[in-house]
Write a structure and sequence with these properties.
The chain is of the alpha/beta class and 426 residues long. The chain has 16 helices and eleven strands. It has one domain: TIM Barrel. Helix 6 packs parallel to helix 7. The protein is globular. The structure holds manganese (II) ion.
C-alpha cells in the first residue's frame, strides 16, 4: 500500500484555513523575537528520524504479547509501513535493519523498494543477545565478552557479516548493543569480561569501512540483573576511545538509572566529539520503551537544548544518527511511532527557539531567574503550527494521525495482509 499526494491533500484541505491563521499568529510572535521562521522551517523539514525494522509490529513483555492486525509479515511490508509513516509526517526518512530478524533475501529488490518509498538505510543492528536456530555456539553466558573463545569469535564474525550486508545496502554505521553481563555476584570476573569485550570490539572495528561509524550502546541492567559489561556512558566512551576515531557512544534514553541527568551526558559526549547516535523513547521506571514525550517531555526538551547547542558549537562531533527505539504493546505501532515523531520534532523545535545569546548573558551575571525564564519561554511556546506548516510544505499531512485514520490505512493493510500476520521482532 502507498499513499499518494492527492489522498493526503484531500484530508488536509478542510484544515488549511485554520492552520494558516495559527501559523501566521505564531510567525508574528517569533519574528518579533528575532527568530527567522524560514530558517526554522528548513531545519524542521531536514530533521529525519530512523524507524527500526522491529518496531512495526506489536511489542510484548515477558508475560505476553497482544498482536495487532495487518502487521507486516515481511521486510518488504515493513519498508512499506515506514514509507507510509514518512508520507504522512515527512520525518521518517530511513529504516534501521535488525540482523538476522530482517536479513534481506534479495538486496537489489529491497534497495529498489526502499528507494521507491523515499527511504534510505540507517544504522545496521547486530544481534548477539539470543541464540538463532542451528547456531553452533551459545550466547547464554555472553557473546563479545564470553569466556568461551568459540562463542566470542562467532559473535565477532556475525558483526562483520552485518557490516558486509550494510555496505551493500548503503548503510554507514553499525550499532552494537550487548546483553552480556551477569545475574549473580561472583558469576563473572569484571576485568576479564571487559577486556574480552574490548578485544572483540577492536576486531569488529578493524572490519569497518573508513566512512562508517561504530556505535556502542550501553545499558545498566537487563537482561542481566546484577551487572552488564557495558553498563554506562563512561564504559562505552572508554571502549569507543580504545577502538579509534570512528567509534562513538550511542545514548538510548531508556538505558539509565532513575533520575540520571541525560542532558549532561549528551553535553559531555559532544564536547569530546563522541556522541554518535541517539535512541528515543520514554520511561517512568526503567527501560519502559514508551512513546517519546509521553512521560517526561520537559526532560526531552532539555536534552534537545544540549543537542542543538552541541550541533552548533561542537564541530568535533559528527551529526548524530537519530532513531526511535520504543516498543508498542497496546497502541497501533504506526500511530505510536507518529506520536513519537511529533514529540521529537516538538522538543527539537522548542530547543531551536532558545535565545542562546541571552542565556549566556544571564549565566555570566548569575541571573538564575532569567536563565529559567529563557529556557521556559521556549518550552512554553506552542510550536505545533510550525510543525504542521513544515509538513504541509513537504506534501505530508497537517495532522498525521487524523489522516492515518481518515484514509483508513490500517483497515487497508488488514485487507491486504489479513488479521493474523505477525511481525518478527521484539
Ligand atoms: Mn536502543
Amino acid at each position: 500500500m502507498k499513499l499518494d499526494r492527492v489522498q493526503i491533500e484531500s484530508v488536509n484541505k478542510p484544515k488549511i484555513e485554520l492552520q494558516q491563521k495559527k501559523f501566521e499568529a505564531l510567525g508574528i510572535d517569533l519574528e518579533h523575537q528575532g527568530i527567522e521562521v524560514k530558517q526554522l522551517l528548513k531545519k524542521i523539514k531536514e530533521f529525519q528520524v530512523a524507524i527500526p525494522s522491529w518496531a512495526l509490529g506489536a511489542g510484548g513483555t515477558r508475560f505476553g504479547r497482544f498482536s495487532g492486525q495487518g502487521e507486516p509479515g515481511t521486510l518488504e511490508q515493513k519498508i512499506e509501513d515506514v514509507g507510509l509513516i514518512h508520507a504522512l509526517t515527512n520525518a521518517a526518512g530511513s529504516i534501521s535493519l535488525h540482523i538476522p530478524w530482517d536479513t534481506p533475501q534479495n538486496i537489489e529488490e529491497i534497495k529498489a523498494k526502499s528507494k521507491s518509498q523515499g527511504l534510505s538505510f540507517d544504522a545496521m543492528n547486530s544481534n548477539t543477545f539470543q541464540d538463532q536456530l542451528n547456531q553452533k555456539h551459545s550466547y547464554k553466558f555472553g557473546s563479545l565478552s564470553s569466556l568461551n573463545h568459540a562463542s566470542r569469535e562467532q559473535a565477532i564474525q556475525h558483526n562483520i557479516e552485518v557490516i558486509e550486508l550494510g555496505k551493500k545496502l548503503g548503510s554507514k554505521s553499525l550499532t552494537v548493543w550487548l546483553a552480556d553481563g551477569s545475574n549473580f555476584p561472583g558469576q563473572n570476573n569484571f576485568q576479564t569480561v571487559l577486556k574480552n569485550t574490548q578485544d572483540s570490539l577492536h576486531k569488529i572495528y578493524k572490519a569497518l569501512p573508513p566512512d562508517w561509524k561504530l556505535l556502542i550502546e550501553y545499558k545498566p541492567y537487563e537482561p542481566n540483573f546484577y551487572s552488564t559489561v557495558i553498563q554506562d556512558w563512561g564504559t562505552s566512551f572508554m571502549l569507543a576511545n580504545e577502538c579509534g576515531p570512528n567509534a562513538y557512544t550511542l545514548v538510548d534514553l531508556g538505558h539509565h538509572l532513575p533520575n540520571t541527568n541525560i542532558e549532561q551526558i549528551v553535553s559531555t559526549l559532544m564536547l569530546k566529539g563522541k556522541l554518535g547516535g541517539f535512541h528515543f523513547n520514554d520511561s517512568k521506571y526503567g527501560d519502559d520503551d514508551l512513546t517519546v514525550g509521553s512521560i517526561k517531555p520537559y526532560a526531552l526538551f532539555l536534552i534537545f537544548n544540549e543537542l542543538v547547542y552541541g550541533i552548533a558549537n561542537n564541530p568535533q562531533n559528527p551529526y548524530p544518527s537519530w532513531m526511535i527505539d520504543a516498543s508498542h504493546n497496546i497502541k497501533d505501532p504506526m500511530e505510536d511511532l507518529t506520536q513519537s515523531l511529533e514529540a521529537i520534532l516538538e522538543a527539537y523545535t522548542k530547543a531551536l527557539l532558545i535565545d542562546q545569546h541571552k542565556l549566556k548573558e544571564a549565566q555570566s551575571v548569575q541571573d538564575v531567574v532569567a536563565c529559567q525564564e529563557i529556557l521556559q519561554a521556549a518550552y512554553r511556546t506552542d510550536v505545533r503550527p510550525l510543525l504542521a506548516e513544515s509538513r504541509l510544505q513537504s506534501g505530508a499531512a497537517l495532522d498525521p494521525i487524523d489522516a492515518f485514520r481518515k484514509l483508513k490505512v490500517r483497515e487497508q493493510l488488514v485487507k491486504e495482509r489479513g488479521k493474523a500476520t505477525i511481525a518478527s521482532g521484539l
